[in-house]
Specification:
Serine Threonine Protein Phosphatase 5, Tetratricopeptide repeat; mainly alpha; single chain; 25 helices
């Protein structure tokens, strides 16, 4: 293969990959690695194309080949580590970050990546070691200074964390993430120490920085189109629609599948707490915000209008295979719970494919929900871009919960609502009620859910909160911020009434 021809084909393959046309990209990369098998970068990109095509075995094979060819290429090894992190393989990700750090004793990025990974897995001492290595390399590194403060806060050294964050903000960090994340982190500390007005001021500054880094208008436009489409579709469905769907796809025509429950509700309504309580049951395998619905079931469903029995069975199989590729891969024979707040707005699609689906919805005072979402520092997408503004958070709440209020009227539907406040005030009683809804008996391990939560990586932004026993300080939190929420309280009032929350 001539160099010019190689360049042309490589550009073509990369174009397909960037356009997310994974099947043809995979074919092009296969030819490229066959023609030039000694190029580690080609194998890395080949693995990325395989990942996009959902062939995880091939992706792993290609990345391992890249690591074999260039084991001392710290940048490439680190990139592969992030890919493993993205597919929820923290052990492999950590091994890559360690390899990259060993390959370049002066590299900050792999050490920061290790610190983040260790912190997410509650291994704070190891995270601290990685951060100290970064600070020894460069005491002024923005990321290292930020994560140093994060670890102080995790260790409840709030005064030290606050001072480090204030010093960092004052130094006007150049790293974009650190510029806004340091303000989010400081706002959390100010909230814990009851300096509510300053916390809101810091959050406003952080969100303004984020807006300057992202085309938020485009994301909001995309969200609004999808939300209106979901509303309109749900609104036109009769209350008997589930019975009709079940008739078109009767139980005897459904391939034998695992027992499945969807755990939803609005983000920050206590879904992670509930999931961890249920996952502590030995007969349950709960999946923490698996991408299986959004990356597999939803796109595959919309690929064709044809919904024959054979195709629906195929959709069910693809989804369940993708779901069980997650951390709870030893789920055979157990009840599966897909905890995923945002896809609550897509419940009609869930129920079209799984008419027998049991649905568990977590509720929490809408005012606490909106405030908690506003405090979250999470990567932007077309859903949580709404969290940059209180008015948009309230609108997102209405969009999602209006769909739930419509769907729960459907006949022939097995669902249960559970309130976060009841989990806090009457933990075992409410947990028993929810466990019974799933057809299971209460297990003593569920009372010690936080002990097992500490032993695994969770992917919810609130992974830290479920590593301790249930606490009540988040109930009624909104009252400390009432003046800041005044403009949106009227729009939330109907939902407060509907779900039983007093004014």
């Amino acid at each position: 293969m001539m160099p010019s021809d190689l360049r042309r084909r490589l550009d073509q393959a990369r174009g397909l990959l960037l356009s997310q046309k994974f099947a043809p990209a995979l074919q092009e990369y296969r030819r490229l690695v066959q023609g030039v098998p000694g190029q580690a970068a080609l194998w890395y990109e080949y693995g990325n194309a395989a990942l996009g095509a959902r062939d995880l075995v091939l992706a792993d094979t290609a990345w391992k080949k890249a690591l074999e060819l260039e084991p001392r290429n710290a940048e490439l090894v680190g990139l592969i580590g992030h890919q493993y992190q993205g597919i929820r393989e923290p052990a492999r990700a950590g091994a890559c970050f360690e390899q990259a750090a060993a390959a370049d004793p002066r590299a900050i990025n792999p050490r920061i990546s290790l610190a983040v990974l260790h912190e997410q897995n509650h291994r704070l001492a190891e995270a601290r070691t990685a951060v100290r290595e970064c600070l020894a390399i460069n005491p002024q590194d923005d990321q290292a200074r930020y994560f140093d403060a994060v670890l102080d806060r995790r260790e409840k050294q709030l005064e030290k964390a606050e001072q480090k964050l204030r010093d960092l903000i004052k130094s006007d960090p150049r790293h974009p993430f650190v510029r806004y994340a340091s303000r989010y982190e400081l706002a959390q500390i100010l909230d814990l120490t009851q300096r509510f007005d300053e916390a809101m001021k810091l959050l406003g500054e952080a969100k303004q920085i984020v807006r300057g880094l992202t085309d938020t208008d485009a994301l909001l436009e995309r969200y609004d189109q999808g939300a209106e489409g979901a509303r309109a579709f749900t609104r036109k469905l009769p209350v008997t629609i589930l019975e009709r769907w079940a008739g078109l796809f009767p139980a005897e025509k459904r391939e034998l599948q695992a027992r499945l429950t969807f755990l939803g509700g609005h983000p920050r309504s206590g879904t992670t707490l509930l999931e961890q309580v249920l996952d502590a049951h030995p007969e349950v395998a709960a999946f923490d915000e698996s991408p299986a619905f959004l990356q597999v079931l939803q796109p595959e469903f919309h690929r064709s209008r044809e919904l024959s029995t054979a195709r629906i069975n195929t959709l069910r199989r693809l989804y369940l295979e993708a779901l069980q590729r997650g951390p709870a891969s030893d789920a055979a024979g157990r009840l599966l719970i897909d905890k995923n707040p945002s896809p609550t707005a897509r419940l009609p699609l869930w129920l079209r494919v799984f008419p027998e689906l049991r649905v568990l919805i977590a509720l929490r005072d809408p005012r606490d929900v909106v405030l908690s979402c506003y405090f979250q520092n999470i990567p932007l997408n077309a859903t949580n871009v709404n969290f940059l503004c209180l008015e948009r958070v309230a609108r997102h709440y209405a969009d999602l919960m209006d769909i739930w209020l419509a769907v729960r009227q459907w006949s022939g539907f097995a669902w249960l609502e559970t309130r976060y406040e009841d989990m806090v005030a009457k933990f075992e009683m409410e947990s028993r009620r929810v466990t019974g809804f799933l057809g299971l008996s209460w297990h003593p391990e569920q009372a010690r859910f936080y002990e097992t939560s500490r032993q695994k990586q969770l992917y919810s932004p609130t992974y830290q909160d479920v590593t301790v026993p249930v606490y009540s300080r988040s109930v009624g939190r909104w009252k400390s911020y009432e003046k800041h929420l005044s403009s949106i309280l009227p729009s939330l009032e109907p939902y407060c009434r509907e779900f039983g929350y007093s004014s």
